[in-house]
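Hi C.,

You asked whether I'd gotten around to modeling the 128-residue construct. I have! Everything is below, sequence then structure, no commentary in between.
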Amino acid sequence: MSEFTSGQAGIFTSLKRLATNFIGVLETRGDLFVTELQEEKLRIMQLLIWTVIAAVLGAIALILLTLLLVVLFWNDDNRIMILAILSGIYLAGTVVAGCFLRKTLNGKARPFEETINQLKKDRECLGK
């Protein structure tokens, strides 16, 4: 009878150790996820700040350049042509900037990729 009780105690001890290890793995993976979440949040905030700064400064520069050229050609009949050419250049620049922005957003690896890779490794180890 004492062997049966000892066997049960061994099983419960093993189950307790397994549960403790599992909780430790979950805690580690949770910490990794939180770290990646903070990094992703920081990256998005930086991207947003630099995008706004570039847009505002670019808009100011374009407005001043347009005003300069219109003032330079004020007495000529070419001021409307200058405005049309500048509008076309600005539109082309907007399209190019939009393409670069899309490429930048699509070029980043998936968010939380390291957490996903670690969970896949854990699943492979448990499957053995």
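If it helps when you're writing up: Residues 2-72 form the longest helix (71 residues).

Thanks,
B.
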